[in-house]
Design a protein that fits this description.
Elements lengths: L1 E8 L7 E5 L19 H11 L15 E10 L2 E10 L1 H7 L1
Antiparallel strand pairs: 1-2, 1-3, 3-4
C-alpha cells in the first residue's frame, strides 16, 4: 500500500477533518514522521494500521464525537483506490444495545 492521501475525522486528538497529502512526497520511498512529544505521530501510524485491517478501538474516537473515520486514497495499478473505516464511540455502541 502506498498512501496518497490520509483523511482523519474525530480520530484521536484530531479535531474536525485533517488531511495529509503524501503525494507531495513524490516518488520518495522513505520518509520520516517526526514532532514534539504528544503531537500525534503514534495516532497517524495507528490510523494507517487501522486501514490495513487492525481491529478498531472505540477509545480512538475523539471525546464528544459519536463516530470517527479514517480514510485513504492509495496508489494501486491500474487506478487509485479509496478505503475508509468508521469507528463508533463506546457510548454510542452502548446506547444501541
Amino acid at each position: 500500500m502506498k498512501p496518497l492521501k490520509l483523511t482523519l475525522r474525530a480520530f484521536g486528538p484530531y479535531v474536525g477533518e485533517q488531511v495529509l497529502d503524501f503525494a507531495d512526497l513524490g516518488n520518495q520511498s522513505l520518509f520520516l514522521i517526526w514532532g514534539e512529544t504528544g503531537a500525534g505521530k503514534t495516532v497517524l501510524v495507528g490510523a494507517l494500521k487501522l486501514l490495513l485491517g487492525e481491529r478498531a478501538d472505540a477509545s480512538s474516537v475523539r471525546s464528544g464525537a459519536t463516530t470517527a473515520t479514517v480514510g485513504a486514497s492509495q496508489a494501486s495499478k491500474p487506478a487509485m483506490r479509496p478505503c475508509t473505516r468508521a469507528i463508533q464511540s463506546a457510548r454510542r455502541a452502548h446506547m444501541r444495545k
